[in-house]
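User: Fold both of these, please.

Assistant: Here is the first one.
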Amino acid sequence: MAIQILLLNGQGLLLAEGDETLMSQYDPQQQLIWVDITGQHSQAFFKQHPDFGIDHLYFEEAQRERHPPQFEEYGTHSYLLTHELKDREEYLLLERSQLLLHVNDHFLVTQHLKPSISVSKVFQRIREQGHLDSTDMSQVCFELMRQIVIDYLAVMLALEERLSEIEDEIFDVSTDDLLAELIAYSSKLQKAKRSFSYHEEILQQWLRDDSHQHIKMDYEQLSYLYNQFERLSSRASLYQGLVDSLINGYISVSAHKTNRVMMTLTMVTAIFLPLTLVAGIYGMNFDNMPELKWHFGYFAVLSLMAVIVLSGLWIAKIKRWY
């Protein structure tokens, strides 16, 4: 488990950054704090600091693979489970991870199993800026959500370019790897669309009810996030339709190529089958076969075979088999 902390004064000015040792300097009445926890075993931290009112079981439950984004309000804080992108090594596959936020006016606690892209970027931005743009931690919550949206949009645009490349590659290179890549995109886009829809529902709930006690984003911020997740959901649907079309196109192209190969093999078989018949007849070596004693028999049979081959090719050309 790794812990990073940003300690700020009541006006949002950055006072210090460090690890868990900064908790000894934290005054809940006068200061703001952002505690970021990477890793699984954080029970000891929450037991040692019960003022946060956070149960570690929230995090354990949130790590279920199919757990959807979720929002709950408690007496001391609001609980928000959101999905963000994993690291960028294979980001086009839209691999997601859970990011858990516990937020009220004075503190923000973020939890994630592995290093978080959005947390790292917002953490670094506040560190360089030296202050928050507001005097409560809801602003940081908004910045995290906005960063998640920005990262998803960047990946969606990159995915659009990749799908355009695949559209051209299908006619030139039809490999199983290409089909596997398309099937992976279809599955991930379906999951991403489901996640975006859950985010839309949460933000719609916030827009309808502005009486939330702990998350205090304004209407403009909520509208921005709602519109962006709606845009992401639309793009996911659009790209999934395109991926399905590409899969069907790939299968059609592969089937066409297979048919061409089978046609060629059939044509070769049809042409050479009579030659096999002729060779079989003259290979029987019966004594009473006049052609065996004929001086020009060998050349006559070869000529007959050549006529058969040329006739077969001519017929195939007329029928446009090649």
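And the second sequence with its predicted structure:
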Amino acid sequence: MIQSKSAQRFKGSLAQQLAVQILSGVLPEGHVFPSEIQYADQIGISRSALREALRMLAAKGLVESWPKAGTRVAPRRQWSLLDPDLLAWQFESEPSLKFVRDLFELRMVVEPTAASFAAERRSDAQVVEMRTALAEMALHGLATEKGRFADQRFHMIMLEATQNDAMIALASSIMAAIAWTTIYKQRDRELPRDPIPDHRSLLDAIAARDVAGSRGAMTELVRLALADTEVSLRGGEGD
């Protein structure tokens, strides 16, 4: 859940390397790649390996090919920025403050409403599952993979409790955003704040079927998570 199987499979591959260069702007929008034969020879790989890498990037909207015009970096508006692989690779290429804020704006649009739906529609079993996930978060901490997995599980159960298939369809992107911002926040130091109390407040509101309280608790949770991430992006200025 923290990183998709395809991202793991392509870690260190040409597709990943090119994706990071595109996402970071090293290869800007409109950049035209050399011909397949020339480029494969230039970087020392087979044409089939190059073709497969470009095929993967095209599927994610990063490049486009035209007859006689060759392959070029596609306009940013075409990039599948919510693709879990691209989210992972975006954080490898040092995300901009705007990109991170865009992610949190999306979370702020989706998750507070999802929390209010979950409060109305959740099952008793889902409350138990969320309590278990929260206990595991507290036990392992978000500095560990087990703790981060528990965090994602907590949010996943909440989305499932909405019983809204469209919201659930966003789960993989939201989970990836949560995972990578959490990792990014503590790349150079410990998390600036303990997030467990915020999650507990949300869980208590959902368990009590408090619709307004759940919306408010999730809004505050996302707001504070953004503030923590901005501190990390700024290198701790103002601490």
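Strands lie at 63-66, 70-73.
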